């Protein structure tokens, strides 16, 4: 899984992704199972407390503050569950990128792959900095206020008495760690899905490069062939690999979409709600307070998550549309009739570009992002008008 190492490293550190190369009978394999169980318990107990706390809130302002964070944490719980349930499928998706056809074959293809790998790596680093900064602003940066008012960062409800200093300190550390784990897990999940979309775009770029070079490769094969039968055998093998690679690229994008489409739909639903509630909250608090900084950074995190899906989904669609152009740009007039007919089929397939979807409901595109922003703003206006009456 070397194509996207950082997201899997974050998930492994959080306890939600066991490295695939560890032998099942090793000590570290079983120790990691114990660690994973503890981290899942920590996350779900953290979510349970946030749920109860939001339900027992006595006024609308407090409820919106607590509920907006609760649904994000609840979304992380569902993402973790999805990782465990879809583990085998995710491994199979990553293995597609390691097949012979998907591995770069020349210097230009290696440049394409390296550029996209670096892009995915930088994306993970930037998102990690953003999310961890938001978690820091919500917890450590406000410790003085929490300790003074005897409150907690996320949930003031816990199933025990907080009058004890030791229990209060443990709860404060538990919620701090829990929120940072949520931030790391969220970053890993979003950048994993976005990274796979980046890899899908890279495979379409490599395919287009191979399409443009196909006539030159066949010409070189003709020169190096000992006989006509030898050339036909080699050319059929080359073109067969070319067609097979075309099918593998589409299979890869379809598999990525099928594995993660419901998680993307969940994130869209959660982010739209959180965006509305966060904007409403920011309009009611002091803009020079640390709480405002936390709300602003939290809002940026939610915007980034939705934007990443829409942007890279749109990029996959645009790059898949270039397949037909790449085939037309090659020197196809020198190819045999049979190959020309097969290329026409590939061109016809490219007229139906790949579209990444969110639960078969929303197509991931720039237009979808703008639609979500409009819905969020309309919901914010409705909430503001209802509370002002």
In summary, what is this structure?
Helices cover 79% and strands 1% of the residues. The chain is mainly alpha-helical.
- Distance separating the two termini: 55 Å
- Our Rg estimate from Cα atoms comes to 25 Å
Sheet of most strands = 2 strands, antiparallel
Shape: elongated
| Coarse structural class | mainly alpha
Compute the number of strand runs.
Answer: 2
Strand content: under 5%
Mean pLDDT: 87
SSE ordering: HHHHHHHHHHEEH
Number of helices: 11
Proportion in helices? over 70%
Strand order of the largest sheet: 1-2
Query: Unreliable runs, pLDDT <50, ≥5 residues?
Result: none
Question: Which features does this protein show?
Answer:
2 strands, 79% helix, 11 helices, two-stranded antiparallel sheet, 1% strand, 389 residues, elongated, mainly alpha
Topology (SSEs and partners):
Layout (H helix, E strand, L loop, with lengths): L4 H10 L12 H29 L4 H26 L1 H10 L10 H32 L4 H7 L15 H60 L3 H55 L7 H40 L7 H14 L6 E2 L3 E2 L2 H23 L1
Antiparallel strand pairs: 1-2
Describe the protein's architecture and organization:
This protein is mainly alpha-helical. 79% of the residues lie in helices and 1% in strands. It has helices at 5-14, 27-55, 60-85, 87-96, 107-138, 143-149, 165-224, 228-282, 290-329, 337-350, 366-388, and strands at residues 357-358, 362-363. A two-stranded antiparallel ribbon has the order 1-2. Helix 3 (60-85) packs antiparallel against helix 8 (228-282). The longest helix has 60 residues, at 165-224. The chain is elongated. It starts with a helix and ends with a helix. The model has no long low-confidence stretch (mean pLDDT 87).
